[in-house]
Amino acid sequence: MNDLSNYRKSYEKSELLESSIPEDPINLFNRWFHEVEDFGAGGEVNAMTVATIGLDGFPKSRVVLLKKFSEEGFIFYTNYNSEKGKAIAANPHVCLSFFWQELERQVIIKGIAQKTSENISDGYFDSRPDGSKLGAIVSNQSDVIPSRTFLEENLKKLEEEFEGKPIPRPENWGGFLVTPLEVEFWQGRPNRLHDRIRYSSQSDFSWKIERLSS
């Protein structure tokens, strides 16, 4: 057995107080996101974990890249026929989470996912490099395949087929917009007395702000 009980760290880089937070969680998320980006520790600031409830009844998490956020919510792109795409179609309740170790911060977002409009999906797909476009077409994400060679050979065929031609977005590929219902901000603090602030969406479109025990 690998005993990890001595893996400990004291969190002392910042604090999260009600006196310094906005009424809207998206504004606080924007502030934190750019503070982490400006910190310049490397890595992908927009990497997030997306958790869904699968068709088998089990929760499953995977890391994807956030591509846009606004007052409407958080957008990422995927194959709609993938395991997560099918899971979201059956149960749109999802959880997004960000862990920014550099500043000892975590954000957890509970929300409802829905497909973005075709125009939004088209616009992002058109902005991608040709290799990424072809990858989206050639990969039946989450399907069992015989080998990596199988993917590479199919990609080569597509490269020849679309050489010098525009590459259309496949109908089974596009965006999901996650509309937040709850957003929790976690700031590491000494002695495990971490700061936890939760925003909960209200029926009048305002946000209820509560402090949670660490």
TrEMBL record:
Pfam families from the UniProt entry: PNP_phzG_C (PF10590), PNPOx_N (PF01243)
Swiss-Prot/TrEMBL cofactor(s): FMN
Domain Pyridoxine 5'-phosphate oxidase dimerisation C-terminal positions: 173-213
Organism: Flavobacterium circumlabens
Catalytic reaction equation(s): pyridoxamine 5'-phosphate + O2 + H2O = pyridoxal 5'-phosphate + H2O2 + NH4(+); pyridoxine 5'-phosphate + O2 = pyridoxal 5'-phosphate + H2O2
Family: Belongs to the pyridoxamine 5'-phosphate oxidase family.
Keyword Lipoprotein: no
One MF term in the entry's GO annotations: FMN binding
Entry's Gene Ontology BP terms: pyridoxine biosynthetic process
Keywords assigned by UniProt, alphabetized: Flavoprotein, FMN, Oxidoreductase, Pyridoxine biosynthesis
HAMAP family referenced in this protein's UniProt entry, alphabetically: PdxH
Pathways per UniProt: Cofactor metabolism; pyridoxal 5'-phosphate salvage; pyridoxal 5'-phosphate from pyridoxamine 5'-phosphate: step 1/1; Cofactor metabolism; pyridoxal 5'-phosphate salvage; pyridoxal 5'-phosphate from pyridoxine 5'-phosphate: step 1/1
Function of the molecule: Catalyzes the oxidation of either pyridoxine 5'-phosphate (PNP) or pyridoxamine 5'-phosphate (PMP) into pyridoxal 5'-phosphate (PLP).
Subunit structure, as described in the record: Homodimer.
Protein's UniProt name: Pyridoxine/pyridoxamine 5'-phosphate oxidase
Binding site for substrate: R8, K9, S10, Y11, K67, Y124, R128, S132, R192, L193, H194
Residues binding FMN, per UniProt: R62, V63, V64, L65, L66, K67, Y77, T78, K84, Q106, Q141, S142, W186, R196
